[in-house]
Design a protein that fits this description.
elongated; about 35% helix; 5-stranded parallel β-sheet; about 625 residues; alpha/beta; single chain; 28 strands
């Protein structure tokens, strides 16, 4: 190409000169002979007078050489490209031959998930976590709709509450829930409570349980018939709610109003809710312990975790729960019931001095510890794990004080980490103190993005900025986010509650900031047969107690006229009572111990934010001294 370009630079002046001379000869011929310019020999183009022919020969030779060189260059270029193209085709054609043996197996596992489960029953029994993958509730892979007017990321309680709220305000709304789980939206509390007390041997398949009041229900909020299939969502005449299972949102394009899923498919949206919840924390000593320990460790959070742990607990001889909070204590009591039935040794260890030591005052924490022990659980307090290893078929836990515990299986119940993976791509702020996405009073993170549930760090007008990880908060924040997505513009003022049951006979409900480091005042009374979670469920007609109380409106209560006995006269028998948590002499948190269906009263006390000279008088509002 360079040769051709150089040759053309040399030929260009000759061409211009010959063209100019030709025009001049034509002009002379017209003027001298008064003849038509058509008689001029136009074929003669030369740099000199028309009589010179050597220069024309040189000109034609140069032009011919240039054309020949260009042709040779083009031929070689095209031939080289063709050779490279053929080589590339041969390389690509060889690739399917390398991966062909794996394709039939992948095809069968996605199109016929039930068939492999029948053929490999023994393998499935050894690996319980594989069962949910081989038996998804919907065919896989599900088609991905290109657009959703309302996109809800996460398939938990907050998303479902938001979907119902959106549909209530906009009956024709089309709502798409995207979840990385294979299950339809379900409630999590029964996973550590009622399901463990079921007499049905097939409870892991049915996921139905009896509430404390004896009524049976499913953990799923709605049956599959309630939902619209994702591919029919945009065609549904009256809109609906669709659930896209087994898909995870990995990237958010906020400016483009779209998200990218784990399979690289994209969904655009008009308005979006992030309700991704959280993931269970693990101890670093367990993570570093190696594969033999990690595969014998359960991080309890989802339906699959319940199924796996329930199966494992029937096949091993010992199990150790690390963690003394709500989840750890509930699982310890639930599994402790099997110690007498199946001979299962249950151990619970934690760094505090007593169960739920971060929440309950010390005297009540000690009482709770004795309650857990009475359920057949071996409790190890002030236990700091130094090292975890696998030796001689057992998981060996070495504590910092030298104590050693050997067990068959571990359950790590040490808290929750909010899922904020989308913060970077979406440009959303994560709170450095509490974790979670920072949102305003309307639970809004951006102009068309809301956050609800465990992942939301919101500002409480009474108690300051907070992040709450409880069922009731998920219900209420999801409901409010759904309303605001349809234009309500309501602030979040609700004081969410939470509850914990140590079996059907002991339970409590709490609201506000309940921290054992705060000053507390407890007022107790003698419990009766109606002062149990079972009786509370029978009275309210529901096992999920927040469902009956979140709609209640706090009103001015009427205090009991019965004179209260002296507080704490029952020594260590705390039958029922009210514990007030104080900050600057103002009640900021309340625990109702075996006192149920009084939460609106507690909520009003915190909302008022007043100082109380005598909390014994305030306790009368809960009628704890009435039989």
């Amino acid at each position: 190409m360079l040769k051709c370009r150089t040759m053309w630079r040399r030929l260009a002046p000759l061409t211009r000169a010959s063209s100019t001379l030709c025009r001049q000869n034509t002009r002379r011929a017209v003027l001298n002979n008064e003849r038509s310019p058509a008689l001029v020999p136009l074929a003669r183009m030369s740099s000199e007078a028309p009589a010179g022919g050597n220069e024309n020969k040189i000109y034609f030779l140069l032009v011919g050489a240039a054309c020949l060189g260009g042709g040779i260059y083009a031929y070689r270029t095209i031939k080289g490209d063709k050779d490279r193209y053929n080589d590339r085709l041969e390389e690509i054609a060889s690739r399917p031959n390398k991966s062909a043996p794996d394709q039939p197996e992948t095809y069968l596992s996605t199109e016929s998930p039930v068939e492999p489960a029948v053929e490999t029953t023994e393998a499935a029994a050894e690996e319980p976590s594989a069962a949910p993958v081989t038996e998804p509730p919907a065919p896989a892979p599900l088609p991905v709709p290109p657009h959703a007017p309302y996109l809800l990321i996460g398939g938990g309680t907050a998303s479902f509450a938001a979907a119902r709220s959106i549909r209530a305000r906009d009956p024709g709304a089309r709502v798409l829930i995207v979840t990385d789980e294979w299950d339809l939206p379900y409630m999590r509390p029964p996973l550590s409570k009622e399901l463990w007390f079921s007499d049905d041997p097939g409870v892991t398949d049915t996921l139905r349980f009896k509430q404390w009041n004896g009524k049976e229900r499913s953990i799923y909020f709605q049956p599959p018939s309630f939902y619209v299939s994702p591919e029919e969502l945009d065609k549904a005449e009256n809109g609906g709610v669709a659930v896209l299972t087994g898909k995870k949102v990995v990237h958010m394009d906020v400016r483009g109003n779209k998200v990218r899923l784990s399979d690289n498919s994209e969904i655009s949206y008009d308005k979006c809710l992030i309700a991704t919840g959280g993931v269970p924390r693990n101890l670093q000593v367990i993570e570093r312990a190696g594969e033999e320990v990690t595969k014998r460790t359960t991080l309890f959070r989802k339906v699959d975790d319940f199924k796996a742990l329930e199966k494992v607990s029937r096949e091993i001889k010992s199990i150790t729960i690390i963690g003394g909070g709500f989840l750890g204590s509930e699982l310890a009591c639930a599994l402790g019931r099997r110690s007498s039935e199946d001979g299962l040794e249950v151990v619970q260890m934690y760094p505090e001095k007593g169960n739920m030591g971060k929440v309950l005052p010390e005297y009540l924490s000690n009482w709770t510890t004795e309650k857990v022990k009475s359920e057949g659980v071996r409790v190890i307090t002030e236990a700091l794990v130094k090292n975890v290893s696998f030796d001689d078929g057992k998981v060996q836990i070495k504590l910092k004080d030298g104590r050693v515990v050997k067990t068959d299986h571990l359950v790590a119940a040490v808290g929750l980490e909010p899922s904020t993976e989308l913060a970077k791509s979406a440009g959303l702020e994560v709170d450095s103190d509490f974790g979670g996405y920072r949102v305003n009073a309307e639970l809004q993170a951006r102009s068309n993005i809301w956050v609800a549930g465990d992942a939301a760090c919101f500002y409480d007008i009474r108690l300051g900025r907070r992040r709450v990880e409880h069922h009731d908060h998920a219900v209420v924040s999801g409901r409010l986010a759904g309303e605001n997505m349809t234009g309500a513009n309501k602030p979040y003022w609700h004081q969410s509650m939470f509850w914990s049951d140590l079996g059907p006979d002991v339970g409590y409900e709490a609201i506000g900031i309940v921290d054992s480091s705060l000053p507390t005042v407890g007022v107790f009374a003698k419990a009766t047969a109606k002062d149990t979670p079972r009786a509370a469920a029978e009275m309210s007609g529901t096992g999920i107690r927040s469902e009956s109380e979140t709609e209640a409106v706090a009103r001015s209560p009427v205090a009991s006229s019965t004179p209260p006995p002296a507080p704490l006269q029952q020594k260590d028998d705390y039958g029922k009572g009210v514990i007030f948590y104080l900050r600057d002499k103002v009640v900021v948190g309340i625990i109702l111990w075996n006192v149920f269906n009084r939460m609106p009263i507690a909520r009003k006390i915190i909302k008022d934010g007043e100082e109380h000279a005598d909390l014994n008088e305030v306790a009368k509002l809960f009628n704890i001294h009435d039989d």
